[in-house]
Amino acid sequence: MKFELLILHIILTITMACYQDSYIFSQNASFKEIILPQEIKTINALKSNHQDELWLATGQGLYCYKNDEFIRYFDNNAADLYCINIFEFDKPGNIWYGTYNGLLVKFDKHKIIKTIDIKAFSKTDNYLITSISIDKEDKNKNNEILLTTSGGEIFSADTITDEVKNIKSPSDGTIYAIQYGYATTIWLCTSDGFYTSNRNWKWKKKSDLYTAYGLYENEDKYWTIGRDENKKAVLMLYYNQNFEGDAEKFVWRKFDLQKLSNLYIRFYQMGFTSSEKIWLASEIGLVRYNPLNADVIEYKNYRDSQLGAIQNITIQNDKLIWMSTSGKKLFRVDLN
Questions:
Q1: How far apart are CA 89 and CA 146, in angstroms?
Q2: Which residues pair with 318 in a beta bridge?
Q3: Whether residue 4 has pLDDT greater than 50
Q4: Distances in Å between the alpha carbon of 186 and those of 20, 141, 161, 192, 195?
Q5: Structural contact between residues 220 and 213, judged by C-beta atoms closer than 8 angstroms
Q6: Which tens digits make up the pLDDT trace of 120-140?
Q7: Contact criterion met (CB below 8 Å) for 64 and 316
Q8: Could you give the 3-state DSSP secondary structure of residue 95?
Q9: DSSP state of 6
Q10: What whole-number percentage of the chain has pLDDT above 70?
Q11: How buried is residue 220: exposed, middle or buried, by Cβ count under 10 Å (0-12/13-18/19+)?
């Protein structure tokens, strides 16, 4: 009798888990456009933090949106310091952002407290900072920030000494992102593939990933979106396949994206509302993907018009998503 009860308990547990997963995935997404301040021309980057604040990087300054109000940080006398293309939060919550003209800036308590100029170390005249990565692992004790530019260059900047190093890129193509990864690994996503390196800067290329648009961490797993050898959209997972207590063994797994309406679309960013709910910003709109069953839902329209390309996405919590289009549009997406 005890054995039968145990079997029944297991069956009910699995059934409820499947039901809850199905319920979460069936949630309706409701869109609301947020009217931007008139001076904003386009949103270059978008991130939320633990204080329920939404931060926007624009060519017209840094903005914080909270309680239905926008706060602008901009100085007309130092406009070059506020033409912002990309930003990241560090462990204490400071913002490090990259400008159009090659400045790495630390922003703290509503003011600029440090600037690092990379132009003197560049071999091109394309200084636009396109990606930033901050090592947030306490055990690594690393003070360097990695960044890339529109000129295809890679730099490291020491946040204590302000020393800047120009690092040779393994790719002649477009660099989409650089990132501190698992342990001491550094990952580089480019138009001609995905590269890995340790801190020795000896790059290795992953052979079956033709293009990598970005790599994102979620619950100690790492996801990358890009194209395969046939130039079709591909989603790949890098994870530890061993059970707890065993030696770590990280492996790659490829996921099926065949249900996409267009297998050749361009992706921009990725976010997660749970371990199995992936949200993809793409040139056709917002895409929701469930890796458990390969289901795809595409959100292409808002009211009677097309959303257009979604270039930025940030997840505030499991029921709230923020996204911006390639034009001057910001949306709040609530999951009911």
A1: 13
A2: none
A3: no
A4: 36, 15, 21, 17, 8
A5: no
A6: 999 999 999 999 999 987 666
A7: no
A8: strand
A9: H
A10: 90
A11: exposed
